[in-house]
Amino acid sequence: MKKTILAMALVGLFGSPIASQSWAASSLAASASSAMAGLPGDMAPAQHHSAEYRAAVSHEWTVQLLENINKLPEMAAQQARARQLGFELEAASQAVYNPELGLSYVNGPEDTYGIELSQTIDWGDKSGNARSQALLTQQIAQLEMKLERSRLLGDSLSALIEQRLRNKELAFARQQLEYAGTQLEIARQRVAAGDISQAELELMSMELAGNSADYAMAEQAALAADIQVMSLLGAESQSFSDFLPLISIDGFAAVDMQLPALELVYKQVQLAKSQAAVSRSDNSIDPTISLSAERDGDDNKFGIGVSVPLQVRNSYRDVSAAADEAVTVAEQGYLSTERLLKQQHKQFQMSVPRLQERYGDWQQLAFSAGSQAASSLGQQWQLGDISTSDYLQSRRQLSANYLVGLQLETAIYQSWIDWLAVSGQLETFILKLASQAQTQAQTQSGPLAE
C-alpha cells in the first residue's frame, strides 16, 4: 500500500475525481518522463533512436545560449583585452633601441662640423624576453577568456535549470491547488449525504489553504528564477531542453595539463619566469657603438667609439632576487591549484554516478508502480476505503516524493556543471552540442530530409 501511495506522487494531477482517473493513469508516464527525461539505459521508455541521439539533435537552444553569452559585457571586455594584447605582442616584437643621429658645430678660427651615428646593442636580449612575455600574456588571456566563458555558461545553465525546476514546481502546485478545490466540493457533497463528518470537511478546507500557500510560494520562486535568467542572459526566457543523457564522468577522467584551469596556472608560472628574465635583461649592460665623422677646417676626421654603462652604484641584485621569489610564489600557486582541482575532480567522480543511481531508483519506482496508484487512490477515498486523514497524508507524501525527484535531477546537473565550469571544459561541451544541432538542422533541410 505504501509503495502504491508513494508512486502516486509522480502524478499529482487528478482533475475531477472519477472521470479523470484514466487520464491520471495515462498522465503518469508523461509527467514523470517530462520531469525525468534523459535517464540513462533501460530506465527510460524505449524509442527508435538512442536517448543520446535524441538529446544531441534537440539542442538548438545551445546556439542561442552561446550568442547570448557572447553579447555579455564580461565577454566584450575579454575580447577587447585580447585585441589589446595582440597590439602589445606586435609592439614587443619591434627592436628595443633605435639608432641615434647626432650633429655638432663648433665656431672658431676654423669652423668644425661633425656628424655621429650610434646604436645601442640589445646584448641582454630585451626584445626577445619582452616578446616571450607578451606571448605568454596573450596565451594566458586566451585561457582566462575560455574560463570566463565557461563560468558564464555554468552560471547561465544553472539559472536555466533552476528556472525549469521552479516552473515545474509551479505547474505542479497549480495542479495540486485545482485538484484540492475539486476534492473540497466533493467533500461538501459527501458531508451533505452524511458520508463524512464536518471535521473531515474542515481538514479538506485546510488542505486547500495549504495548497494555495504552496502555489503562492512556488509562484514567487519561479519569478525569482525568471529574473535571474534575465539578469544573466538579458532575456526573460531562453529555450532549454534536457541533456541529462549526455551527462557522464567519461572523458573528464584526469587532472593534467590538458585541463584549461591547470594550463592557466602553469602558464602563469612560465610568465613569472619570463618576467624574471625580463627583469634581468632590463638591468643588463648593453653597449653602445658609435661612428663619427668630423671636418675641422680642411681636415676630415673619422672615429669609432664604444660606451658601456657601469653598474657601480646599483647592481640590481635585489630586483633579480625579488623576481626569482615571484617564480617560487607562482610555482606554489600551481601546486595548490592542482591539489584543489584533484579534490574537486574526485568529488565529481564520486557524486555524479551515485546521484544518477539514486535518480534511477526513483524513476524506476515511478514507472513500475505509478500507473496503478493513479487509478486507485482518489477512488478509494470516495468509496470510503480510506479515511480523509490517511488520504490527505498520502497526497502530501506523493507531492513530497515528486519534488524530491526534481531535486535529484537538478543535483545531477549541478554537480556536473560545477566541475566542468571550474575546470574550463564546459564551453567545449556546449560548442559540441551546438555543432551537433546545426549539423542535424542542415541534414533535415537537405535533399535526403525531403
TrEMBL record:
Q: Which UniProt keywords apply?
A: Signal
In which family does this protein belong, per the annotation? Belongs to the outer membrane factor (OMF) (TC 1.B.17) family.
Q: Which organism is it from?
A: Shewanella corallii
What is the protein name stated in its UniProt record?
A: TolC family protein
SUPFAM superfamilies, per this entry?
Outer membrane efflux proteins (OEP)
Q: Where is the signal peptide?
A: 1-24
Q: Where are the transmembrane segments?
A: none
